[in-house]
Amino acid sequence: MDFSLSPELTDLQARVRAFIADEIVPLERDPRCTPHGPNEALRAELIAKGRKAGLLSSHVSPEFGGLGLNHVAKAILFEEAGYSPLGPVALNIAAPDEGNMHLLEAIATPQQKERWLRPLAAGAIRSCFCMTEPPPGAGADPAMLQTIAMQDGDEYVIDGSKWFITGAEGAAVAIIMAKFADGPATMFLADMSSPGIVIERAMDSLDTCFPGGHGVVRFEGLRVPQENVLGEPGEGFRYAQVRLSPARLTHCMRWLGAARRAHDVATAHARRRHAFGKALGEHEGVGFMLADNEMDLHVTRLAIWHCAWVLDQGVLGKHESSIAKVVSSEALWRVVDRSVQVLGGQGVTHETVVARIFADMRAFRIYDGPSEVHRWSIARRILRGPKPRAESA
Amino acid sequence: MDFSLSPELTDLQARVRAFIADEIVPLERDPRCTPHGPNEALRAELIAKGRKAGLLSSHVSPEFGGLGLNHVAKAILFEEAGYSPLGPVALNIAAPDEGNMHLLEAIATPQQKERWLRPLAAGAIRSCFCMTEPPPGAGADPAMLQTIAMQDGDEYVIDGSKWFITGAEGAAVAIIMAKFADGPATMFLADMSSPGIVIERAMDSLDTCFPGGHGVVRFEGLRVPQENVLGEPGEGFRYAQVRLSPARLTHCMRWLGAARRAHDVATAHARRRHAFGKALGEHEGVGFMLADNEMDLHVTRLAIWHCAWVLDQGVLGKHESSIAKVVSSEALWRVVDRSVQVLGGQGVTHETVVARIFADMRAFRIYDGPSEVHRWSIARRILRGPKPRAESA
Amino acid sequence: MDFSLSPELTDLQARVRAFIADEIVPLERDPRCTPHGPNEALRAELIAKGRKAGLLSSHVSPEFGGLGLNHVAKAILFEEAGYSPLGPVALNIAAPDEGNMHLLEAIATPQQKERWLRPLAAGAIRSCFCMTEPPPGAGADPAMLQTIAMQDGDEYVIDGSKWFITGAEGAAVAIIMAKFADGPATMFLADMSSPGIVIERAMDSLDTCFPGGHGVVRFEGLRVPQENVLGEPGEGFRYAQVRLSPARLTHCMRWLGAARRAHDVATAHARRRHAFGKALGEHEGVGFMLADNEMDLHVTRLAIWHCAWVLDQGVLGKHESSIAKVVSSEALWRVVDRSVQVLGGQGVTHETVVARIFADMRAFRIYDGPSEVHRWSIARRILRGPKPRAESA
Amino acid sequence: MDFSLSPELTDLQARVRAFIADEIVPLERDPRCTPHGPNEALRAELIAKGRKAGLLSSHVSPEFGGLGLNHVAKAILFEEAGYSPLGPVALNIAAPDEGNMHLLEAIATPQQKERWLRPLAAGAIRSCFCMTEPPPGAGADPAMLQTIAMQDGDEYVIDGSKWFITGAEGAAVAIIMAKFADGPATMFLADMSSPGIVIERAMDSLDTCFPGGHGVVRFEGLRVPQENVLGEPGEGFRYAQVRLSPARLTHCMRWLGAARRAHDVATAHARRRHAFGKALGEHEGVGFMLADNEMDLHVTRLAIWHCAWVLDQGVLGKHESSIAKVVSSEALWRVVDRSVQVLGGQGVTHETVVARIFADMRAFRIYDGPSEVHRWSIARRILRGPKPRAESA
Fold first, then answer.
1. Does residue D116 lie in a domain region?
2. D-interface mutation test, from A10, A382, A392, most D Cβ less than 10 A away
3. What does the DSSP 8-state code read for residue D204?
């Protein structure tokens, strides 16, 4: 057992930390931050900075321009990136692109990789992942998928509705989950410019960190050629797990950084601001909130590191990533909520970045499986036994 | 002991409920709802509706155009008004005007009442309450007041900075808390058009329900005549309690309605949306959240009713209103947070009104005394003994 | 709406409070308090005190020697009784006798009342309620009832196993829930001395407040005459509700008193004991616990009073009593747990009465329906709609 | 970073697990388990088993008969030992002996080690640690120490009162914290048979796992020779930290095992017991409790492992051990409380071992620094900055 980081990783951590502090934090009040995320001009500027720093798409293999980091290394780096709401965009490791690149690298054909992964990894284009559907379609329960693909010669014709499609507006390519009539789910790739893809509207949401916001997308007789099937037909749900188990964890990593930021802002305030005769933080009622933040950040980081290490052993780690997701999304939410409280009136305004992190993070307990679905999965594994717990790992 | 409502109150409750449902809810998506609250045109339209329904300024005495409700009656009516974010504006019982009218009616001179209370009660003008200051001034600790008033002949000259001044933009009149050099706090009235009042900027905040938003205000040599002193010089902090104890409670009442709305929206969703083979609400994980909402709403309502009844006995009820404030602001927050969770993705978007209630309500645990300050006050009373608890009341 | 108590009730409250303080608290360290509850000698002494004070069996009608209190009056008196672990025994209002008397008065025949209710109300005998069964029988789910009654001429023959039978050891009479083969549940009365009733063993439990402890009981060919059917055959589950809805609430009342006691002991300690330069209670970390106790006690009391008032309106109040049960059992547990924490080392020893209250109260979240079953019932009512909530009551 | 265990450690873990299951669990209902802990006969039998298994005093160096485990190895082994309330006694790693041996090995003279450490490590004798005092002495605040040592020739004369002295009854040796008049604290060693040591009484407590229970001890003119000073005079508080930082952590390790046991018992019950048409665990309300247990156990284990690793780096780790203590004592308490709830009625009786673990564990949030004191220490370090958090470790 060893909790130390290699010198290389410690160095990388320091570099990213400095990069975020020096290059990215100053852009947080840039007016190109819109209610639907940083706009394309801002995104391009951020990506240029990340590229210049040699930190772009670090989770992608060097072959496609990344740093080829393993999961543990990502845990270190992504936390640092998440320290600013703009950090993951600047390093090209924001959702959903980060997970989409991971999936493409894992299962796409060489042609598909050249066409889509390479420009994605370069930050030249963006992508979206079209899975979630409005009622009565697939929400927390993917088995309720309603989007239909029908074979027509050497093409597939796709019809259906999706929503909460993060980054749809402005994306160049979509990964689409659809099913054959009564058949299993399959993933397809499609250029967003294809006839038959309609972005009906943008959804107004609490969060403002994702470029392109969240869209409602309709497929009306969308035709995709056979070579655009992603992986094997019928394996859609399995691939969703290939994407989700690590994607879930990278969310945890980034939000850990964001919560640490909120805690740091709150701590600085608690040191500086006085009330009732002493610094706020000297009041136990406030000091205890900071201590609870410290503990929540600590155990979250450990749960993330552990899960990352498990994934690095080459297993899918569904149990560990479920645990990391629930622990992280709930503990980090408490951290940010307490940070708001410590800040008092300033906490609920945009005088600091904390209100933004607060609004951005609420969805974390919901997407990639709400806490309730993960708790249920964890419970089922416990009940099934033998024990799922990694007691020796 | 009797928990029943009089027939008159039951009838009033039904009228307000229908008014909100029929007249106000349909306006919730009106584009005149801005990030800094409903604009003046929308406010005027809402007030006109409230006036037509005969429900305007119900807490003000009939002499000034209100219904003269006691605290218990307000508990019933304000909950109904709070069911829509626009309801309190429509009934002219939104903060800070509601508390300001209460204070003016309690301590203003006849001339002051004619000049400001009457048009306020008619919804013709708005007001603001200028107490909170940026560091190192008065925040949670009012004793840190920095705004200075100096007598100059038969005028006072006021200098200082205020922020989080709700409704400052567009207000016609301000109640200003200031102190004489080393002396006690005093309240002053001033027309917002007076030379020497500068609204420096609007503060961007999570909430969007208060007309005029929240402003940063500077007093630069503001001159107010002696007759604009509100009440007695030196009694500012005492009057703040006269205003705050009931104002704290009316916040609880309105937010109770808002949380009930969130719960109703979540319940409807849990009945209708299916996942994993049954309605969401049939899953215990979701059903338990609805049950917890029900219990939190119930005990909050009881704590509010009890405190309102105590205030109706003619006492200040500082202990009871502190308890009601902490219980309400924390329990109702849990209700709204759970409602977001039940709604899943829709909960964090503006597909329903719940995300708006969520963003509006976070500040409730902070203003009018953060939970930490109230807990400390409650603790001091317990330690001082004899028991503060109203065991027989 | 009125939260005041009548002068009669205020007087009764004061009398019981003084009685408990003067007569009962001094007996708390009596060695006749055994791990299985106060023994019969101590119980007889306590009952004698209660009788002398004219406070015995206050929930029973005067016809049978009680005071005929309504539910609201019981809420006041039972809270005072619960202030000592021995108080409910002294006033003959402890579970299960209290609920059994209530049930007998509601549905027993005149002959049954004379035979069993009269001596029960006089404290001359004790009773038990035989419903819960070991697996695979009836636990939280009463429908799993396994105890069988078969008609044999003008007698019934009962066979089955029960456990967690509070007060079985030393009880004179049992109310037995059994069912006909595939038929509905029926209640029977039987003298505990009847052949065919075997008390297999006492169960060692955390609590030590119930006379007779908790027993495992077996019925082996127990023969009861037809006149011992309690109420109508086949109505057993309905009667269980008749018993449980108020019995659940009287538990809440008594434990409210116990939790108030724990809070008072903790408060006295927090005033007296010093650490780090000031009284414990002056530390916010401790003061906040006391404030949270105060709030939990307050809302619990309101929820109990409300439910009592609802029952006094003549309705069964299943929804309200479920809510009161969950709110009380969870809030009061928090109070007692915090009181232990405030007391530090003394909290986990029998230096004060708090450790005993702690051990006694843990079962409260489990018996008469665990929190989980009540949450589920509450959820079902919410989902079924129209709203179950007593908004105007 | 590496979460794997060495083959040696995995093997040791398996051996201890089997030993506890086969040799110790069967003794849990032995009547020699008294309210004041396992009696001396049972302790001797348990120690004999531990010795035979070659697992005795594993934290002590081989020189004195132990296995010389580092902190990480202890984390693995002590968790397994804690799986039974009797396990730590059998392996001679129970508090307070375990911490006392650690302290003696760290700072005692060779003569002191031969005289007391050697027989302690062999399980031949027991020891106690006399620090905590009744009011107005040292409780959570060690600076309030009242026990006085006065030099008299080449002896010290000690007078004072101590309580909560775990294991005092039956101990052969005491470590005594006392101070010179107005001077710093010093540690002394004394045979418990010395004239001048009076065990006034045993304290009845909720827990029953510590041999000898908890005693009230008085020193009346106790004379100890100079060679019985432990370490340097005036360094008592520093040595207390040397003892406490790891002793705190070994508590966490043992209780982790205990909580895992409770969870396992609850899980088995949830698999087997049915209600409302399916296994208890199939109800989300129960399954979620098991999932929360799993997560609490997981993050607790990680926090313990991390802190153990930090201590193995040779630092005192006060911050990390404070965090591990608060996280563990609160998370493991939740686990045990939920396990009781899952078990229903059986949870509050001694039908299973869970009620015993529940009663044993409540004190864990209090001793070795209550949560409130640790939160305050953590807060002070955060406020002092630079960040105390081990982000790269």
1. no
2. A382
3. P
* Final residue of a structural domain among D232, D256, D271: D232
ipTM: 0.97
Q: Are D306 and A13 in contact (CB < 8 Å)?
A: no
Q: Is C303 in contact with B301 (Cβ distance < 8 A)?
A: no
Asked if residue C392 is part of any domain, the answer here is no
B243/B378 same-domain check: yes
- From chain C, the residues in CB contact with B375 under 8 A are 284, 287-288, 291-292
**Nearest chain C residue (CA) to A285:** C284
**Cis peptide, bond prior to residue A96, ω within 30 of zero:** yes
Asked if the Cβ–Cβ distance from D288 to B285 is below 8 Å, we say yes
Q: Are residues C261 and C369 in the same domain?
A: yes
Provide the CATH number for the domain around residue B275. 1.20.140.10
Contact B383 C291 (CB under 8 A): no
Q: What angle do CA A276, A277, A279 make, to 5 degrees?
A: 90
d(CA B354, CA B270): 14
Number of domains in chain C: 3
Q: What CA–CA distances, in Å, run from A347 to A6, A24, A352, B140?
A: 37, 21, 7, 13
- We report the CATH number of the domain holding residue A55 as 1.10.540.10
pLDDT digits (tens, 9 = 90+) for C4-30: 999 999 999 999 999 999 999 999 999
Return left, alpha or beta for C62; rule: phi > 0 is left, psi -120 to 50 is alpha, else beta: alpha
Q: Which of D349, D351, D366 sits opposite C348 (nearest CB)?
A: D366
pLDDT for A392 beyond 70: no
Identify the contact set of chain A against chain C, taking CB-CB distances under 8 A: 283-285, 288
Give the total residue count for chain D.
Answer: 393
Record: contact A392-D290, CB cut-off 8 A: no
Q: Which residue ranges in chain C fall short of pLDDT 50? A: 389-393
The shortest CB-CB distance from C275 to any of D144, D350, D371 is to D144
Length of chain A, please? 393
Q: Which of C40, C72, C94 is the last residue of a domain?
A: C94
* Residue C38: domain span: 7-94
Q: In this structure, are residues A145 and A138 in contact, taking their beta carbons and an 8 Å threshold?
A: yes
Cβ contact C345–D164 (<8 Å):
yes
Radius of gyration over every alpha carbon of chain D, rounded to an integer in angstroms: 21
D353 near D28, Cβ under 8 Å? yes
Nearest to D327 by CA among A337, A288, A304, A292: A292
Same domain, D333 and D210: no
Are B31 and B82 within one domain? Answer: yes
Q: For position B152, which CATH number holds?
A: 2.40.110.10
Cβ-proximal residues to A298 (8 Å cutoff; 6+ apart), any chain: D303, D306, D323, D327, D389
C-beta atoms of B285 and D283 within 8 A? no
**Residues D275 and D378 occupy one common structural domain:** yes
Quick one: closest CA in B to D287, which residue?
Answer: B285
Query: Does some domain include residue C390?
Result: no
Residues C179 and C306 in one domain: no
Burial of D62 (0-12, 13-18, 19+ CB in 10 A): exposed
Helices (H), chain B: 7-19, 40-52, 71-82, 87-90, 97-107, 110-112, 118-121, 236-272, 284-312, 318-343, 354-361, 371-384
What pTM did the predictor assign?
0.97
Does residue B216 share a domain with residue B178?
yes
Domain assignment present for residue B242? The answer is yes
**Residue D257 sits in the same domain as residue D366:** yes
- Band of the pLDDT at A242, cuts 50, 70, 90? confident
A273 to B351: CB separation less than 8 angstroms, yes or no: no
Mean pLDDT across chain B: 96
- What does DSSP assign to residue D99? H
Chain A positions touching D309 (Cβ under 8 A) are: 1-3
In this complex, the chains that touch C, judged by 3 or more CB pairs closer than 8 A, are A, B, D
* pLDDT grade for D389, boundaries at 50, 70 and 90: very low
